[in-house]
Specification:
By secondary structure, the chain is α+β, with helices and mostly antiparallel strands. It is built from 4 helices and 17 strands.
Length: about 280
Amino acid sequence: GSEAEMSGNGIRCASRVCFEGSFRGRTPLDFVTPGGRFRTENFVDPESGVACVRVFTGRIETNPERVLADGSREPFIDRRLEGEGLDGWGLTGTILSIGNPHLVVTVPDLAKIDLPFLGNALEHHPMFRNRANVSFVQVVDPRTILVQTHERGVGPTLSCGTGMTASTVAQVLSGGVQNGVEITVHTAGGIAWVTPAVTPAEISARLMGNATLVYRGTVGVVVAGGEVRLAPGEPIRRGEVFQEEARCYERLAARSLFDRSVLRGTALAAGAMSDRHS
């Protein structure tokens, strides 16, 4: 992919590595990103035994002027989406920024969307200044949603932390889920939980999900001109493998209600369960 302002899943992984390494045992931790400052808490979920990280998003914005090409700041909530190839779908969307731009589209049935076409068409829609992450959401009940995200510059992914967060907040704004309570989010990659806090003065949320150690490894890098790249032709050399931790998370991920047939036509369609660690 390409560089993003921040990543909800990436920040959870970074928090776990810091918590186990240079900042051993310290929680909370603060991370400064191009998309803003984010606080994390590391803990072990007592029910599942899975190592988790909670991310506090800070202020979430409705359609800040840097998202749309025309610079509009008018809230974009449940508005009809029009454009080439979109007319027959009858889609409506909500735009939010969690440090990075998101378009959330609510659909009655994820299994009936054309993910490869719609994800790409909406990411590159000319209304966006620098494209957008696109999440398709199916509401199961007021405390449960299914989410599939097409990430900007990447395409369909097994899960997206900021996508899950934006999807939950968008459903609060449209009345699909409850505000101020923990919402369970099911994705192809497993399960996470988002607690939205929507008030007239401010919108924020907490994202909670796993950060699972699968293995440790080493890889060669090349530093040149201020950039760091993987050394060509050098595979990652695996070290310690955390089989029990991985199995513990697999048991939790297997509870996801997500129907992976939604991924048909994408590179993820044949992905194995082990992909969920990514």
